[in-house]
Amino acid sequence: MSSSFQQDLPDLYEAGVVELQDGLDAGRFSAVISSRLISLELRSNLQGPELRALLKVSPVALKSAAELDEERRVSGKRSMLHGIPVLLKDNIATISPQHDCRLLCATWISTPDDAGVVKRLRKAGAIILGEQSQYVELAHFRGEVPSGCGSSSGSGVAASIGLATVTLGTETNGSITSPTSNNNIVGVKPTVGLTSRAGVIPIAAAQDTVGPMTRSVEDAAIVLSVIAAKIQRPPHAVQPSPVPDLHQSPGHQRLTGQAYRRARSSFP
């Protein structure tokens, strides 16, 4: 790889959605190049003894990236996620002849359709790179023994070490927030009903929700604005109408420079 080419590439471990999108818009690199390099890192993760954050890499990711590069060249990008690599928790369905959900003993032999959130990601031009582990044989991002904490641990570890710019997790009770905290990333547990749960293996219908797990607040806002959708509302869910664009919200920087207090106890 030439030194000039290397200079054109961002640090894929650190780059956010906006930085990648700026590079793609300027033609400094392509979605194929970024996806290929990330895929190499993903495959090395599968071979290592330490983290095991990833279950498998999509065999069609590079083909999708090439198609999205051509579409950008001809007609422009669809959204801020056009050409951006995404990893999914493995209880979120993608069209596949064999889709595993390695939570306890559950296995999907075949999934004929994408989950609702995956459909929205694909419509926005995102590249689905692969599936992430839940509990099984998963380590914390710092070493062999400590847990990543929660069934979205694969998403937390993958985001923390830069295996993908965007990851998705699901939460019943702490499965997004706990690995977010343990792995020093940004996660959003959306209000139940804000994101579709169609095609997601559930634990509790009244609590389950799908949310972004990323390295920055900005990236989380971009992703949530894409996967949030006006769907048939379950009776226990609350959903704003219309669904706001959190990334473009005029108040999204109002907390800058503010002072905060932290409650040390729930009781006086």
Question: Your description of this structure?
Answer:
- By secondary structure, this protein is α/β, with parallel strands linked by helices.
- The protein has a single domain (7-227), classed as Alpha-Beta Complex (Amidase signature (AS) enzymes).
- The chain is built from eight helices and six strands.
- The chain has helices spanning 3-8, 17-26, 31-47, 61-75, 116-123, 153-160, 177-182, 217-227, and strands spanning 54-57, 85-89, 127-132, 166-171, 186-187, 209-214.
- The chain has a six-stranded mixed β-sheet, with helices on both faces.
- The longest helix is centred in the N-terminal third of the chain and has 17 residues, at 31-47.
- Residues 1-5 and 136-141 have low confidence and may be disordered.
- Residues 234-268 are annotated as: Disordered.
- InterPro entries: Amidase_dom (IPR023631), AS_sf (IPR036928).
- It comes from Rhodocollybia butyracea.
- Residues 56-247 form the Amidase domain.
Salient structural properties:
disordered N terminus; Amidase signature (AS) enzymes; 268 residues; alpha/beta; 30% helix; 6-stranded mixed sheet; 6 strands; globular; 8 helices
In brief, what are we looking at here?
The chain contains eight helices and six strands; from the N terminus they run αααβαβαβαβαββα. The longest helix is centred in the first third of the chain and has 17 residues, at 31-47.
CATH architecture: Alpha-Beta Complex
Beta content comes to 5-15%
Oligomer: single chain
The CATH class turns out to be Alpha Beta
Helix content: 25-40%
- The structural class is alpha/beta
Give the C-alpha Rg: 18 Å
CATH superfamily grouping: Amidase signature (AS) domain
In whole angstroms, the N-to-C terminal distance is: 61 Å
Name the poorly predicted regions: 1-5, 136-141
Summarize the helix and strand pattern as letters: HHHEHEHEHEHEEH
Question: At the third CATH level, what is the topology name?
Answer: Amidase signature (AS) enzymes
Give the strand line-up of the largest sheet: 1-3-2-4-6-5
Q: What do the pLDDT scores average to?
A: 78
Largest sheet, strands/sense/barrel: 6 strands, mixed
Count of discrete alpha- or pi-helical segments spanning 4 or more residues: 8
Number of domains: 1
Number of strands: 6
Tell me, briefly, the overall form: globular
Pfam family, one: Amidase
Region (Disordered): 234-268
Domain Amidase: 56-247
InterPro entries: Amidase_dom, AS_sf
